[in-house]
Amino acid sequence: MPGRSLHPDEGQLWARVMATVRPLRGVAAEKRLPTPEPPRPVVASPPKPAPAAKPRPAPRVSPGTTLDGGWDKRLTRGLIQPDASLDLHGHTLASAHALLDSGLDRSIARGDRVLLLVTGKPPRPESERPHARGAIRAAIADWLAVSRHAGAIAAVRSAHPRHGGAGALYIVLRRSR
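Structure (tokenized):
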């Protein structure tokens, strides 16, 4: 099966390598490749204009996932008092999303650090209700990730039982600079 033809530079390099190789005893030497012609001079053509680089979109900043140990410890023990709270009970997905966005606007403008977001408890696995439950709670992570406020969010944590437990979340906002 014929291989690709060698570029003149490759052919010269191959010829130099083959000149240093000794055949094994008792093995017939392979047919040597013909020495390629010397390279032809290349006529310089005018440089092609570089294609315009497409500007890269600014990287999306997603909500942070880590806090220092002190913050996590105080949140876990329920020692942090939320600066504001939002209750999304009784809202449709669209109205809950709008309320979350406006609530984040207000909290950031006021310089709040911790927002308590009451979403309702997720459905229990053994629940056999005919209608979907926990849709708002399930959508929160996606909403926050694509939110225009994502860069202002330091972390999202489950709330302490005194603040709603499994039915609520703490949204820890970054300190304004």
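Residues 58-62 have pLDDT under 50 and may be disordered. The first strand starts at residue 84 and ends at 87.
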